[in-house]
Design a protein that fits this description.
Number of strands: 11
Helix content: 25-40%
Structural class: alpha+beta
Largest sheet: 9 strands, mixed
Number of domains: 2
Order of helices and strands: EHEEHEEHEEHEEHHEEH
Distance between the termini: 40 Å
Shape: elongated
Number of helices: 7
Length: 228
């Protein structure tokens, strides 16, 4: 039997600048300080069996990231949440936890981001969003990690919705087996300087699907207050 728990957490402040790898290490070290029955991999360098199904871009805060943790024995989600929460550094808050049914794979379907705009950015961003939504395609060139030529991505094909309300740019994109839209790509498409703005972006909602079951849900509400 596989015993797994999905934990929703928020990350902000200076910790939003840590990488996906460093986030994994943060949870590994926190788990090592608890007495939870964590399941470890085999081999010469055993590691706790955990995953972050939706890697977060460096600089982007989140109110709805998810950690999936595998255990050696059945444990109530609340009994996992409490001891692990006590080991979190400032900037990481564990929000809730639930059991992942056997045979299910926690997968993101859509993700929503929010960016507060300055008064000077509102009108230009709104106009850019309208052009983007009216386009049948919006191709962006995506470079590879080593700086070589990458591939072309149709941003419009991933975009579910976008708009500017109350001086905040919000957009929702699909997450597929082929990938998704990076926050920086959306910011560039809206005429914003991604390097100057990405650190003010927050991931405010994720719709998760547990493959292998009929359930599709959000792990707890992502309210406007969370986004702030």
């Amino acid at each position: 039997m596989r015993y797994r728990v999905a934990i929703r957490f928020a990350i902000d402040g200076d910790l939003r600048f840590i990488s996906h790898h460093d986030t994994m290490r943060l949870f590994e070290r926190a788990l090592a300080r608890t007495r939870l029955p964590v399941k470890y991999s085999r081999g010469f360098n055993p590691r706790p069996r955990l995953s972050l199904p939706l890697p977060r871009a460096v600089g982007v805060a989140s109110t709805c990231d998810v950690l999936v943790l595998e255990l050696c024995e059945a444990t109530e989600p609340g009994d996992v949440l409490a001891p692990l929460a006590g080991q979190m550094p400032p900037g990481v808050r564990l929000l809730d936890a639930r059991r992942v049914e056997a045979g299910a794979a926690v997968q993101p379907e859509t993700v929503t981001y929010a960016l507060p705009l300055t008064g000077e950015q509102v009108s230009s961003a709104q106009a850019a969003v309208e052009r983007l939504l009216a386009a049948e395609q919006w191709r962006v060139d995506r470079g590879s990690a080593d700086g070589r030529s990458g591939k072309t991505v149709d941003l419009r094909g991933y975009l579910v919705s976008a708009g500017v309300q109350a001086k905040t740019l919000r957009w929702t994109v699909r997450v597929t087996s082929a990938g998704t839209v990076r926050p920086a790509e959306m910011l560039d498409a809206c005429g914003l300087d991604a390097k100057a703005c990405q650190h003010r972006v927050t991931r405010v909602d994720v719709c998760w699907s547990d493959a292998g079951s009929a359930d599709r849900e959000r792990m707890g509400p992502a309210s406007q207050a969370d986004a702030r």
